[in-house]
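Friendly challenge for the regulars: who can give me the C-alpha cells for this chain first? No prize, just bragging rights.
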Amino acid sequence: MEIVVGFVIRMHAIVLLLHITATCAQKRPNFVFMLMDDMGWGDIGAFGNPAKETPYLDRMASEGALFTDFYSANPLCSPSRAAMLTGRLPIRNGFYTSTYHGHNGYTPQNIVGGIADSEILLPELLKENGYHTKLVGKWHLGHQEQYLPLNHGFDEWFGAPNCHFGPYDDQTTPNIPVYKDLEMQGRYYEKFSIDRKKALSNMTKLLTDQALEYIQRMHDSETPFFLYWAPDSTHDPVYSSAAFRGKSQRGAYGDAVMELDYSVGMIIKLLKDLKLDENTLVFFSSDNGAAMLSNKCCDGSNGPFLCGKQTTFEGGVREPTIAWGPAFVKPGQISNQLGSLMDWYMTALDIAHIPLPSDRTLDGISLREVLAGGKRVERPLFHYRGNTLFAVRWGLYKAHYWTWTNSWEEFNKYGYEFCRGEYVANITTHTQMNYTSRPVMFHLGRDPGEKCPMKYDSEYDAAMELIRDAVERHQQDLVPGEPVLDVCDDAVMNWSPKGCEAIGDCLKSPPSRPYKCVWLH
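First reply, four minutes later:
Bragging rights claimed.
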C-alpha cells in the first residue's frame, strides 16, 4: 500500500511540475519583430502622411508608443538587418566593405560572405532559453548554406535569402529561391510569381499567412516564441496582391503599403483574439529610409527629412517605428527617445530576463523603462557608411564628418542620385566631402530637414565638445570585425540551393572566379 501511495504522490508531483513548467513557459513574453523594406518615415498616417491609408498601423501607434527619433544602424538593408539581430554596429559584426572608403555594401547573390559564426544573434539566445523562433520573409545575411537562418538560431524559415530582383534567365543569372526551412521550394518569377509590369504578387499574403499560422500554432502548444516578420514588397520592384492593386492614391508603392498595413492589423488582431497581447511585445520599423532615386518618383516618403536610402542624412536612417504590447508599453506615447534597431536586441533580452553576452561590445540599449513611460536615456548614435564614421547624433545635434550622395560614375552611367529634388550646397554632392577637422552640424529641432548648417559659434562649440567626447569613447573599444562584403564570385549565386533536386530546379554554375565586389555608392 505504501508503495502505491508513494507512486501516486510522485506521479502527482510530476504532473504538477509539468503543469507549472508549461504555465511558466507560457508566461514568458513573446516577441514579434516586424521589419519593413525601404519604407520611409513619411509613409504612415501616424507619422504625418496626408493620404491616411494606414489605419491599422495608426491604431497600433495610438495603442502603443510612436518613436519620432528612431534609427536604423545603417542606410542599407543587409548591414541594418545584421545590426538589429546582433545588437552591434556593422563595423563590429563585419557587414561592411573595406575596399572602398565610405561606400555601402550588401549581400547580392554573388557575394561570398555572410553573417559570421562568431556573432551571437538574438534568436540564438532566445532558443537557448526555451523559445521557438521563426523568420518569415527576407533574410539578407548571406545565401550560402552556412549563413542561412536555421544555422543562426531560427527553428523555421519561409522566405528568400536575397532581394526579389529579376526576372533573370537562369543561365547568366539564376532567379532567387524561396525557402521553407533549409530547402528551396521554387524561385521568384517562376513558382512564386511577381508581375513587374502590373506590380502584382501574392507574396505578402503568403508571408502573412505564414505568420498567422505560426502564432496560432505557438499558442496552441503553449510555447514562447520569437517571430521575425520581414516582408519586402515596398522594395523595388514594388508589388501588392490583386485585392490591393489600384487602391492607393499613391500608386503601386502605396498599394504595397496598404497591404502591409492590413497584414499588421491581422497579426495584431490574432494576438488579441488569442489573448497573447497580454504577454507579447511587438516592434514595427524599417531597415532603412525610402529610396529617393532621382530618375523615379513613385517610391516612398521620408517626410521632412533630407535624401534617402544609401545616405546618412536623416532620410536614409530615421525610421517609422512603433512599439506595441499592453503588458510592456504605456499606450498613447509619442516618444522622442533617441533609439536604434540595435535596441530591440537589448530590450528583448532584458524583458525575457536573459543575460547579455559578456564577451563583446554591444551598441544598443534596453528600452524597457522607456516603453513603460519612463525617462529618456541620453546617448549618442553613430552613423557609418561602409567602413567610415560619417555622422554622429547627440541630443538634437547632428555632426557630419563626411558627406556625399553617390559617385559621379554611378550618376553619369545610370542617372542615379539619392536626394531626389533636393540639393544642399557642398553637402549633397557626388564627391565625398571631408569635414573631419570641423564637422558640419545641424540642429534637428530647428532644422529637421538638414538644410541650414549651424554657424561656428558657442552653441556649435559646446555641442561638438560632447560629440567629440562620445566619438573618442566609441573609438577606444572599437575593434572592426572581419569585413564580409569585399569578395564576390558568380559561382556562388543561387544555382543549385539545397532542395533543388527534389523539384528539378538545379542549374549549372560557372567556374569559380573570385573578384573584388564593385560598390558604386
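Residues 2-27 form the longest helix (26 residues). Confidence is low (pLDDT under 50) at residues 1-25. Your move, everyone else.
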